[in-house]
């Protein structure tokens, strides 16, 4: 993600979340490649999806994942999540965590397909609605079962295998 992508990212962010991140929040994270990696999916000039990753202490945290409403169910979210996970593998990180709304079953299904498991629940995590969040984790990225799962997703998406 580069600064010129922010208009497109913010349009998707505002459409997707009740408390969208601000331009300042994204821009400030872009200035810290030592602990943050933001990726975009583009079609021509248009941003059609994005994801954010924080990393440190051997762990990654997915901070954002969204696809443009007109481009959902076409594998964009899966490709972005896979790219973030692959970045974690390249960095040698052990595991990845994220938070997801308890009502967001579509996203939970997507994360479970990638090997994320529900490990906790944060009460009232989303302040604007008071909704709880599930904490979901992949603990061991080099576990054989996880490697096989990711390779199967790569195959389904028509991508390379590791
Ligand atoms: C969650 C989200 C990012 C998923 O993005 P997406 O691009 O639709 O995700 P994918 O297309 O990779 O996968 C979603 C579904 O599409 C299906 N799919 C993937 N590729 C496909 C293809 N080529 N043709 C048809 N369907 C396909 C997947 O099987 C999956 O379906 P299923 O869950 O019913 O099995 C998107 O719904 C979104 O932006 N939601 C709002 C923001 C949000 O909730 N983010 C998560 C916050 S924690």
Q: Which labels suit this protein?
A:
six-stranded mixed β-sheet, 162 residues, 35% helix, Aminopeptidase, binds coenzyme A, 33% strand, alpha+beta
Low-confidence stretches: none
What is the mean pLDDT? Answer: 95
Principal-axes geometry comes out as globular
Order of helices and strands: HHEEEHEHEEH
**Domain tally:** 1
CATH homology superfamily: Gcn5-related N-acetyltransferase (GNAT)
Number of strands: 6
Which range best describes the helical content: under 10%, 10-25%, 25-40%, 40-55%, 55-70% or over 70%? 25-40%
Question: Roughly how many Å apart are the termini?
Answer: 24 Å
Structural class: alpha+beta
Give the DSSP E fraction (strand runs of 2 or more residues): 25-35%
Query: Which architecture would the CATH scheme give at its second level?
Result: 3-Layer(aba) Sandwich
Rg, Cα atoms, Å: 15 Å
Largest sheet: 6 strands, mixed
The CATH class label is: Alpha Beta
| Bound small molecules, deduplicated | coenzyme A
Our count of helices gives: 5
CATH fold node name? Aminopeptidase
Which strand order does the major sheet show? 1-2-3-4-6-5
Account of the 3D structure:
The protein is α+β, with helices and mostly antiparallel strands and 162 residues long. The protein has a single domain (3-156), classed as Aminopeptidase. The chain is built from five helices and six strands. The chain has helices at residues 6-16, 23-30, 76-91, 105-113, 144-156, and strands at residues 36-43, 46-56, 59-67, 95-101, 117-126, 131-138. The protein has a six-stranded mixed beta sheet, sandwiched between helices. It is globular and about 40 Å long. Bound molecules: coenzyme A. Coenzyme A is lined by residues 16, 65-67, 72-78, 100, 104, 106-107, 109-110.
